[in-house]
Amino acid sequence: MNRKRALISDTFRVKKRRNETKTFGVDINGDGLTDVKSSLEYLKTLFPRKLFNDALPQIMLKHQLYSIHSDKTLVDKEVSKLREGGELLMFQLGFDTEAFGLVFTSDYKAKVLAGEEGKVTRPVVEKFLEKVVTSCTELSFSKDKMLREFFFTDSEITQLVKSGVLTVRDAGSWWLSIPNSGKFTKYFIQGRKAVLAMVKKSKYGEVLQSEIEERRTTTQVKFHMKYHICDIVGAELVESIPSTSGALLRFVDS
Amino acid sequence: MLGFLTARQAGLDDPLRLRRAESTRRVLGLTLNPDRDVDRIHANGVNAIDIDAIEGRYMLSGGADGVIVVYDLENYSGKPQYTCRAVCTVGRSSRYVHKFSVETVQWYPYDTGMFVSSSFDKTMKVWDTETLKVSHGNPYTSQSWVGTKSPKIQLCDLKSGSKIHVLQGHRGEVLSVRWSPRYEHILASASADSMVKVWDVRRAAGSLFTLDQHNGDKSKAASEAVNTAHNGRVNGLCFTGDGLHLLTTGTDDRMRLWNSGTGENTLVNYGKVCNDSRKRLQFTVSRGCSPEFVFVPCGSSVAVYALHTGEMITLLRGHYNNVDCCEFHPDYQELYSGGKDCNILAWIPVLREADLDQDSNADTSEEDWQLTVETSQEIKVNFLKVV
């Protein structure tokens, strides 16, 4: 397949679109200060809202930040600060123990309440959002906690699970979750696998970041290419190597 | 460098400052040097290395073929090119040699007259270095630990050779055990059941505490199970030089830094530290540098991380196969690493460039003087004449 690509002469290459504003060299977001919030805003813009009919809040992954900022410990500290300040919520997405999803609290509340319009479970969900989400920074809740600290009854907990705000984790404990996020997880894993396959199939298992962003994506990849690239670089599934022609992504065999 | 020297001379700076600055500069310049080599004795992989703590002169290495070798690391030949020669070897022909692969070797901490080795043939032997015979009934009392395939840790008395104490609490095989360099009675153990426990051997009861990666925040854990230090087997354990922190590596590809007094996870993020070793991984921490460095074998290279920030400094590439063990020589800031390719590589700090003699006569041969500063207890300045 690669040989075929190499044999076609340049004049016949109609698919390639030249990016006029190509930056030379490595594009580092280096300014000394780790501005995690603005990076999150940037990642937010990459999230495809149309795909989910605007029913989901914009979800970013914590390890996507590692691809933008070099100091992981500092990023972790900033994220905890934002979570303690109540601006950011963290979720266990389920497909990987280390993959945490981040959503802005305001977005989350707005979308959940919008989704609950006209449903019977609405008042319980409202109460949950007010009491628990505002004050608590944990990822999961045990039955003890729900009953004692927050005074939710069993039937109310069932309603919360039904509405999608809580997901079962263990017997008697629940993860905080985003309603209707199943589709997100499905498309995300599909897209991640497809992008990784694209990098792996390239000659020598490596491809220039600018080149792979230009490529026409298959129907498997539903998110923006940059979203997936931030994800695979941050999760260390590919290595980002600075080169004179820009960043090079090399597949990591493990 | 000269600025540091004059400041130290004038008393403006603490003497330790120059030493730390120079040590850090040397560690950052670690590289393979064609002038330094280690004798190649092992025919199979090298499993463990230990440098003696008193002089830092002799290095022990244990191999997968059961062979144990003692090397002399000091260069008294006067030439810069030096191969660390093997002083003595416990070869396959020795009567006392281990039947299977040697997993751990360790010098007696107070002198180099004795060393201990343990192996897959389920024995631990105490050797006399002069005669290279297994000895019993030596006059020094000391304790040593043995981590075995069973979940129990046994403390043996080196004087009598008997087991005196058993530490129970782990549920899987114990992969690595270490004494704390700060307190004589504190011991840390890592096992395949994902737990790391810290023990006080003076107590009759169980462990002091178990390290928990989530620091008690049960909400992050995958299930409401016991405290785990890693999400997989814990196969590497190392105390920092001052004994205040403990590093652990696990097969979940993570390395964690813990406060050894409270057991709290300091949450330093090192990223993905590739680890697929089924047995113990011997890694090491630098001593005497200003930001301390961790040297972790990562596949066929050694990764160098800054201890407290977690950033990866560099990858030391040179081995042809997996690296199993590495050891840091604190006096000369050198790193020795051994692996499955049967080589022990010496990583030496890059020397400063030579200053060429400006006026050279036609009669005399041109001489380059190389200044190497070796930082140790007092600053020794060696002039090596290179023709």
SSE-based structural type of chain B? mainly beta
Number of helical segments of chain B? 2
- Mean pLDDT of chain A, to the nearest integer, reads 81
Distance separating the two termini of chain B: 26 Å
How are strands sequenced across the largest beta sheet of chain B?
Answer: 1-28-27-26
In order across it, which strands form the biggest sheet of chain A? 1-3-2
Oligomer: heterodimer
What kind of sheet is the major sheet of chain B?
A: 4 strands, antiparallel
The span between the termini of chain A is 25 Å
Taken from the alpha-carbon principal axes, the silhouette of chain A is elongated
- How many distinct helices of chain A? 11
Q: What amount of the residues of chain A lies in strands?
A: 15-25%
Q: What are the low-pLDDT stretches of chain A, counting only 5+ consecutive residues below 50?
A: 1-16, 20-32
* Rg of chain A (CA only): 21 Å
Observed structural traits:
heterodimer, A: 254 residues, alpha+beta, three-stranded antiparallel β-sheet, B: 387 residues, mainly beta, 40% strand, disordered C terminus
Describe this structure in words.
The complex is a heterodimer of chains A (254) and B (387). By secondary structure, chain A is an alpha+beta fold. In chain A, a hairpin with a 7-residue loop joins strand 2 and strand 3 (100-104). Chain A is built from eleven helices and nine strands. In chain A, the strands form three sheets. A three-stranded antiparallel sheet of chain A has the order 1-3-2. A three-stranded antiparallel sheet of chain A has the order 4-6-5. The model of chain A is unreliable at 1-16 and 20-32 (pLDDT under 50). Chain B is mainly beta. Chain B contains two helices and 30 strands. In chain B, the strands form nine sheets. Chain B has a four-stranded antiparallel sheet with strand order 1-28-27-26. In chain B, strands 3-4-5-7 form a four-stranded antiparallel sheet, with no helix packed on it. The two termini of chain B are 26 Å apart. Chains A and B meet through helix 4 and strand 4 of A and loops of B. Chain B: One of its GO terms (biological process) is response to light stimulus.
